[in-house]
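Practice problem 4.
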């Protein structure tokens, strides 16, 4: 007569099988958590990019005097005082900092490519069509490290087809 009792070795095999199933379930759960976390981080990076890039524009909308001053500086008017020019350059520094943030977020694939394409086109147009940015870049280019520095410098040199690595 055959013994219907499960041997100790049989129980060990069943335990290994159940343990394997538990590991697979744990890995699926972990993958879902990582995916959700990555989505949230991308969303936060998108929000940060928008807030940083829109900050200078919000200042212009809220402050008529600043808007007029920046408009004069961007047009390349030489008749502004050194204090006013310093104010304009600080404004431009904030703008270009926003572009730099977008640039590095784009390189890291942390923001949607559509946000990068539109933002990059906007900033390129600004520096290529408004003389004041060239004055700014001449004095403040040292505030930016590679590779962003070379990226913007190439645009000032009219190598407009350059793209970030």
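Answer key:
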């Amino acid at each position: 007569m055959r013994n219907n009792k499960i041997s100790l070795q049989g129980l060990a095999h069943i335990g290994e099988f159940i343990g394997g199933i538990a590991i697979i379930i744990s890995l699926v759960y972990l993958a879902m958590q990582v995916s959700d976390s990555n989505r949230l981080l991308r969303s936060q990076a998108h929000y940060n990019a928008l807030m940083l890039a829109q900050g200078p524009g919000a200042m212009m909308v809220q402050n008529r005097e600043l808007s007029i001053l920046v408009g004069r500086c961007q047009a390349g008017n030489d008749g502004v005082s050194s204090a006013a020019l310093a104010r304009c350059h600080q404004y431009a520094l904030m703008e270009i900092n926003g572009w730099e943030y977008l640039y590095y977020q784009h390189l890291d694939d942390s923001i949607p490519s559509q946000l990068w394409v539109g933002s990059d086109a906007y900033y390129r147009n600004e520096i290529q069509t408004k003389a004041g940015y060239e004055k700014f870049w001449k004095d403040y280019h040292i505030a930016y490290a590679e590779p962003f520095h070379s990226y913007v410098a190439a645009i000032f040199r009219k190598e407009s087809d350059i793209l970030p690595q």
